[in-house]
Structures are given as structure tokens and as C-alpha cells.
Amino acid sequence: MEQLSLAQARRVALAAQGFTDPLPPGSPDRRHLRRVLRRTLLLQIDSVNVLERAHYLPAFSRLGAYDKGLVDGALARRELFEYWGHEASLLPVALHPLLRWRMERARRLEEGWGGPLRAMRERPDFVASVLERVREQGPVGAGELREGPRRGGAWWDWDEAKVALEYLFWSGEVTTHSRRGFERLYDLTERVLPAAVLDLPTPARADAQRELLRLSAVAQGIGTAKSLRDHFRLRPEADTGLQDLVDAGELTPVRVEGRTWYLAAGAALPRRVRRDALLSPFDPLVWERSRTEALFGFRYRIEIYVPAAKRVHGYYVLPFLHDEQLAARVDLKADRQAGVLRVLGVYAEGTAPPTTAAALAEELRRLAGWQGLADVVVERRGDLAPALTRELAGSP
Description:
A five-stranded mixed sheet has the order 11-12-13-14-15. The protein has a four-stranded mixed sheet with strand order 1-9-10-8, sandwiched between helices. The chain contains 16 helices and 15 strands. The chain is α+β, with helices and mostly antiparallel strands.
């Protein structure tokens, strides 16, 4: 079996995720966003907005300052749709047929989670009535379907109508028409997605999962069986497709640090990578934490749900890519009232080169400008804070 060094595996992974693609010479346009989506396959959605919504950040990491309207426009033009890809995600509509097996499993009550599945098991007539109201009133928000005063529940204080809508969303019967703020407005899928997409044939589940694994391998460049499954949250049953892909020449098993990884056919292995980027906690480069630790020696845990007194690095911590290393981690907050980007904490990794603070200062200035913030303010928390403060003081 072919051997790859850890450094080679890192460079393959970075190239596959677009960190060797040239930065746009001017303002990024639709073509550049589509290039990012070919690299990431999807944009994960998350409700936390302490800095920026998660689905906008991967394009910034790969393109620099860009117009977020490019993402919104792609959704409005139905180039993207919302569904459970890697958690809640924006996905290219061409992937819809490959995820219909998941929708079918939800309809059969074999796929999904907690509340929505329970709603369908225990109150199918109520779920059907919610679907009928969407048919009559859509696009519609969950609050408009609420009956009586809001009652807190076990699912983020969702009421019964919202839980029913989430089941219908998972089963593919409704989808996101648009958003009001961050609230989903639901409508029938047949009224939202293009007929040309809905008319595409539905592959068998095994074929769809095998293709999702192949796409994941291209996006990751190199990955373990676990990380390839994780891209679309596939179950271990999907591993049966790995050998088919190996036999077809789409994947090559390789050894990295004594473990078996899978190298995608045609994956680039650059001689070096020169790129600085702040990464969302939900960026495909780092979202599968065991792969991140194996490739970069970077143990990463998001601490949003950890009590403040027990957090190690902070609430919303972004890894900082400096060339081929994850060289630092930065706890950031966009303080829009004060008009500044606040660095609440900043920590260097043990292998961070001496150029880390200067490179990070430049990237933070770029992020602040993209967010329309006038300055970067560094708090004292973290071993890299003094050097970063000096660099920012000396930068234009």
C-alpha cells in the first residue's frame, strides 16, 4: 500500500478544499462562489450569530471579502436548497436526488431525530393537517401555524407546529422557500425546487450513498472511512461502497501514520501551500474533529454549550490557517454597536511560526472590513494577545 507523509496528506486536504486556488483579482462573482461550492459541496447552517452566520464564512475563507448576496442570490435562484446534508445545510440542487433515500427513510420513520419523529408516530393526523395548511398558506412560518399560546417543549422551545414542520422538512415534503431574518418560511417542495430537478431519476440508496462517498472524497482529497461518511452524515452501512470505489479506481487506499486513509482519484499534491484563512467552526476542513486532529495535530472542541467558567479558549473560536498549519485559535465577536471586531482571546499552537501574529493581524483586518467594522480590538486573554496587539498597532 502506498505511503503518504502527514505533511503530504495535509497539502492534499488543503488543495482539495480550495486553499491553493488563486484569490479573485477583483470582486468575487457567481463563478467564484460556484468554485467554492464545488470544493465544499455544501454550506452548513448554524443559528449562532456572534460573528457571522456560519454559511457565509467558508466563502470568505476561500475568496476573501465578497458580497454575501452571492449566497442569498444562489438560494433565491434555486441553485441551492436547504436540507440535512452535514447537519442543516445549503446544498446544490443537483444533489437532491442523492438525498431522497434520506427523505424516504424519514417518511418510513427510520431517519430523523427525537421530536419530529415522535410527532409523526404519535400525531400523524396533526402532521397531515400542518402539511395541508402549508399547501393552503405557504410560504409560511411556524409561528403563523401556531394554535393558541406558545408552549415550551423539549426541542429548543419549539411548539407542536414547528416540530411537525421539521418532520415534513426532513421527509422532503416541504422545504425552505425563503427566510424572514433567520426564521424559515416553509412551502411545498414541488412549489420551490425546479421541476427539472424534481424530475431527475431517484437512484437506489446504495448507489446514492456510494456517489456521496465519492463526492466527499473529492472534496476532502484524502480521508478516513469515518471522515468520508461524515461529510453527508452517512451511517457505517455506507462503507460497503468504499470497496466499490476502490475497485473502480475512484479511491486509492494509502497509509498515513500507520492508518488507512483513502486518496481521491486526481487529488492534487502541491509542493507547498501558502494561504492564511480564518475558519468557521463549521468549515469542512475542520468539522470532523478526529480528522482535524490527525492531520494538523489540532485538538478542537467548540465550546458554545460549555458554561463560561469552564471554557478553555472561548465561546466562538475560529482556527487560523497559516500556510500549512492550524497555527492559532481566536475567540471573536462582532461588536456592531461599537463598530469593532473584538478578539476576546487568542492562542498560539505550539508549532506556530514566528510570522503567525503578523499574518493573523492582516486576516483580522480583512475580516473586520468585510463585516463593516472600523477596527480590531484585542483583549488580554491568550498567549498570542501581546504580539497580535503590537502587529495591529503597527498595521495600516
